[in-house]
């Protein structure tokens, strides 16, 4: 199950920031579960985690609430959630009890936090793909192989709640800022985790959203070209800002990704599947 995935949205032609819009609205926030005891377990699990690790921080996250449109333009529906609710719902040992019986993905996941993560398939100038091995210091999937990534951050665009969103003009401005954060954040993550300068990276192309089967965790994936060779990337990786999150950087041929993908969490295996669809469309 940890390697299983579902593709929620595929954009094999690769969409630029002008082709991806966002509807940020509280209607896409999580719906509390009617089981009061299950709801209480969110706080209980978070309190236990904080006691185990005082460094835990309850930051705001964007919640994936679906999408509309098809290529060449899609609109992402995003609400607001936080890391505490993610730990207490998606990462809850009883996470399957949070699922609502429905064939519709958004209805099925309406009671889970489901923060939208991100990941990047980064291709070097000598056509190698960058893959990280996660350290044992991370909260999820220590030791697994992943593409560089993290989360778009509401606080980067001044969002701490829905109260800041009043009036049509302000809503349009916020939607625009959130849409840009989708693209800015993945560049930030690559720079911080790999150590390459932002100036060496192309504008990201959005290729879709995957969700792992285990605890229904969604992630948006992007394709980025880097104008450094793989040996140069390895040199800068040693001084990456967030190098503590990983223990090794692999620079591999695209043909070798199939073997690596079997050691990835489901959402990143989904990212690889989206990349293959992109390659197929390019051919």
How are the SSEs placed, and which strands pair?
Blueprint: E1 5-15, E2 20-24, H1 36-52, E3 60-68, E4 74-82, H2 83-88, H3 105-108, E5 117-123, E6 129-134, E7 145-146, E8 149-150, H4 168-194, E9 205-212, E10 218-225, H5 230-237, E11 246-252, H6 257-261, H7 266-282
Parallel strand pairs: 2-4, 5-10
Antiparallel strand pairs: 1-9, 3-4, 5-8, 6-7, 6-11, 9-10
What would you note in describing this structure?
A hairpin with a 5-residue loop joins β3 and β4 (74-82). The protein contains 7 helices and 11 strands. By secondary structure, it is of the alpha+beta class. It is globular. The strands form 3 sheets. It has a 5-stranded mixed beta sheet, with helices on both faces. A 3-stranded mixed beta sheet has the order 2-4-3. It has a 3-stranded antiparallel beta sheet with strand order 7-6-11.
Structural class: alpha+beta
Largest sheet: 5 strands, mixed
Q: Catalogue the unreliable spans.
A: none
Q: What amount of the residues lies in strands?
A: 25-35%
How far is the N terminus from the C terminus? 32 Å
Q: Summarize the amount of helix as a percent range.
A: 25-40%
Number of DSSP helical runs = 7
Strand order of the biggest β-sheet: 1-9-10-5-8
Topology order in helix (H) and strand (E) letters: EEHEEHHEEEEHEEHEHH
**Average residue-wise pLDDT:** 92
Shape, please?
globular
Question: What radius of gyration results from the CA coordinates?
Answer: 18 Å
């Amino acid at each position: 199950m940890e390697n299983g995935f579902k593709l929620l949205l595929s954009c094999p032609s690769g969409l630029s920031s002008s082709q991806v819009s966002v509807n940020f609205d509280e209607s896409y926030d999580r719906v509390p579960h009617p089981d009061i005891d299950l709801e209480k377990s969110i706080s209980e699990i978070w309190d236990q985690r904080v006691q185990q690790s005082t460094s835990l921080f309850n930051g705001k996250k964007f919640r994936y609430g679906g999408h509309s449109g098809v290529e060449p333009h899609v609109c992402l529906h995003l609400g607001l959630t936080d890391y505490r609710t993610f730990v207490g719902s998606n990462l809850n040992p009883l996470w399957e009890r949070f699922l609502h019986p429905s064939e519709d993905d958004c209805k099925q996941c309406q009671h889970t936090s489901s923060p939208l993560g991100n990941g990047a398939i980064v291709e070097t100038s000598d056509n190698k793909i960058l893959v990280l091995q996660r350290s044992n210091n991370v909260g999820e999937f220590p030791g697994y192989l992943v593409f560089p990534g993290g989360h778009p951050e509401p606080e980067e665009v001044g969002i701490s709640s829905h109260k800041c969103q009043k009036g049509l003009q302000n809503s349009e401005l916020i939607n625009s800022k959130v849409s840009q954060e989708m693209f800015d954040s993945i560049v930030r993550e690559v720079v911080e985790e790999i150590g390459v300068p932002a100036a060496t990276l192309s504008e990201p192309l959005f290729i879709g959203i995957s969700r792992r089967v285990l605890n229904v965790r969604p992630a948006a994936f992007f394709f980025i070209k880097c104008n450094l060779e793989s040996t140069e990337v390895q040199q800068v990786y040693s001084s990456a800002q967030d190098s503590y999150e990983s223990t090794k950087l692999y620079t591999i041929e695209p043909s070798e990704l199939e073997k690596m993908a079997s050691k990835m969490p489901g959402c990143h295996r989904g990212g690889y599947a989206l990349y293959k669809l992109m390659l197929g469309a390019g051919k």
